[in-house]
Amino acid sequence: MKKAIIAAAAIVGAAYALDAQELTIGGYGEVALSRNFYSDNVYRYSSPTEYANDPSHGRFDIPHAVIYIGYDFGHGWSMQTEIEFEHTGTGVAVEKEFTEAGEWETEIEKGGEVELEQFWLQKSFNPALNLRIGHIVVPVGGLNNAHEPLNFFTVYRPEGEYTILPSTWHDTGVSLWGRAGNWRYEAQLIAGLDGFMFDRDNFVHYGAKSPYEFKVANNMGYVARVDNYSLRGLRVGLSGYYGRSMHNAYPNDMHNTRYADIKGRTYIAAADFTYTGKRFIARGNADFGYVEDAVTLSTVKRNLSSNNSPYKKLPVASNAVAAGVEMGYDIMPWIASDADSRLFVFGRYEYYDSYIPSPDQQDYPFTDRHRIAAGLNWFPIPEIALKAEYSHRFLKAPYKDEPSINVGIAYMAFFKK
Predict the structure, then answer these.
(1) Are 2 and 381 in contact (CB under 8 A)?
(2) Which member of 12, 44, 210, 401 has the lowest number of beta carbons within 10 Å of its beta carbon?
(3) Phi, psi at residue 140, to the nearest 5°?
């Protein structure tokens, strides 16, 4: 397990760990098998009673497969790339759109499902001062700060943060970061989120996406994160984002005087922690988001002139929230004396709501969800985990609860150091 923790730290950006190496090659990946005991019909929320007794459905998936390459040029200069393949796709997907009368659509997104998550050059002056320029991970929230599959117990990424925030959030910009004693800090200047990509079901999740060959940066985004390691085994982090989300689309619509003064200021605040003991691991997060001018932004999105517009037409709420905690205990010493093998029994609870409307917005109660998950994580060796869980998503009446069984296998390792 110690090796896996070291690998995770390096992948998320502890570049000063590369000082003794020239070339580093690694990666991570996961395979997931699911059986969902609820309807997969696109109208199950708009007509919940009609689809309450639908049969279960199964899915096999490879959510993420990542190749990581880093190089230390010497004299404090280093680089890192991270290429991610999602869902074995090539960027073209056929989807059934429940927001558009259940029509079948073929969708193409920028970068498709092959994404360059990191591509940066860095100058390290000392461990407390590093300057990074390029395409970087945005460490807002616990999941974006540690998104590799051995950093959470569930088969899929923690659902609450993954729903309301971009994940993995990556963007082009500049980062200044470092660690001094028990403190680590990071400040970033990146392209701002695009409010036309916000929506009811995912809040700002798609706001960092761009359907173009470039990322629109009419407005900038400002990111800050600080972590403390004062207590042995415990890391506590605070992070946040601020930026204007209106007029951050292509073409620039600032000439439209009717909405010229609408800023769409977006605020995100997050707290997260990780505790790692000899046999016990606990993790938790709390995230809150606020979008100013959400009513006007939703109106503008709905009235976009072209039906082929790449932007989201569903409304966005003023607020969204996600909070969760998971705990796991290693019972392997009760079963065998294998020093490298670990068997965690875990449980997770989370609450999230991607659409908390203002008083003059329509409510959609199915976005308000509680979820529990319980299961096992077996690490036969530190770099590989086999996962199994039962999860249950609780929705308000009249919507049917959504239980499922998920099984997966994941790895995270360096192949060359």
Answers:
(1) no
(2) 401
(3) -95, 120
Measured in whole angstroms, the distance separating CA 28 from the mean position of its chain's CA atoms is 15
- Nearest Cα residue to 348 out of 167, 160, 168, 201: 160
121 CB-contact burial (10 Å; exposed 0-12 / middle 13-18 / buried 19+): middle
pLDDT band at 4 (very low <50, low <70, confident <90, very high): very low
Dihedral angle over CA of 164, 190, 6, 81, nearest 10: 110
pLDDT at 74: 94
CA distances to 69, 160, 167, 329, 348 from 117, rounded to whole Å, are: 12, 21, 10, 32, 28
Whole-number pLDDT of residue 304: 72
Closest CA to 192 of 267, 258, 117, 121: 267
d(CA 132, CA 139): 14
Measured CA distances, 13 to 6, 109, 289 (Å): 11, 27, 25
Q: Residue 394 pLDDT > 90, yes or no?
A: yes
72-95 tens-digit pLDDT = 999 999 999 999 988 876 665 556
pTM: 0.89
Which residue(s) pair with 408 in the sheet? 32, 387
Q: Which of 149, 169, 152, 158 is nearest to 412 (CA)?
A: 149
